[in-house]
Amino acid sequence: MTALTEQIALASDTRSSRTAPSKGLDRVFQLAALGSALLVLLVLAGILGSIIYGGWPAFREFGFGFITSSAWNVGSEQYGALVAVLGTLASAFLALLIGVPISIGIAIYLTQLCPGWARKPVAMTIELLASVPSIIYGMWGLFIFAPLFARYIQIPVSNVVEGLPIVGTILYARVPSGVGVLTAGIILAIMIVPFVASITRDMLDQIPTVLRESAYGIGCTTWEVVRHVLVPQASVSIIGAIMLGLGRALGETMAVTFVVGNANRLSASIFDPSSTIASRIANEFNEADGMQLNALMALGCLLFVITFIVLIIARLLTRRAKVA
Prior knowledge:
Membrane topology: Multi-pass membrane protein
Structural class: mainly alpha
Number of domains: 1
CATH architecture: Orthogonal Bundle
Function: Part of the binding-protein-dependent transport system for phosphate; probably responsible for the translocation of the substrate across the membrane.
Distance between the termini: 64 Å
Pfam families: BPD_transp_1 (PF00528)
Largest sheet: 2 strands, antiparallel
Helix content: over 70%
Number of helices: 13
Order of helices and strands: HHEEHHHHHHHHHHH
Strand order of the largest sheet: 1-2
Radius of gyration: 27 Å
Family: Belongs to the binding-protein-dependent transport system permease family. CysTW subfamily.
Domain ABC transmembrane type-1: 85-314
CATH superfamily: MetI-like
Number of strands: 2
């Protein structure tokens, strides 16, 4: 009995001796985690504060007209963001319009239709596309894709739709050089496909097999299983993947700078050159000063606001999908 009492006392002393250092390490860990979270917030606040401070003179000088004006004249110091904002939104929208169906199709093929021996090579190819630097996409788009696009798409389509109402306005190229909003959208679509496809594939793989087998068991076709079982189950993740791709498309700089044309001109044609917020900043920031620099910083503020709005929309859509 005495021996048992001594063992219990020894174990209690040992536990006490270990508890004090453990509490200290736990406290250090909590402080480190808190510091990491605060560091992220401080960095974000610092970035936002610096671009607001730099862009405020432009907002103060031009007011709301900075957003609604299409002027961008360095000589007369007249600046407006309308062309760049519309170019950013148009190229990103076209990228989603082209890339999202392809991405979902790839994900469905890999999870439902692809034979086992081909699944890994196809998946590795998709992942390899995600690792290609954006400047490579831009160079390929400018020197390889744009000339072919002008020769085989822009010129024939422009000859067919010239003079037609609406369609002729949207699909007519004044100067069929191959660069423009649609070209930028296509290049962006190629860039976002790996991200959207990979996330969608992972989510489809996580759906319980019993759901698919049950659907096949009652006589559903592959299309019916995909439409009524897989896509509804993974809808929240698919929306998140699409929003991630949209964020990538909105902020892409180098690839778009190569192929968008960098023209400050409003045009209803998706074949005509334009500019985006990121491409304009990249082209002019190095040599900008004075009000031009302030205008570029103000463009950065607008891009930040656009991406923030996209984040809010993504949150609302995912919340609605979860409720449904």
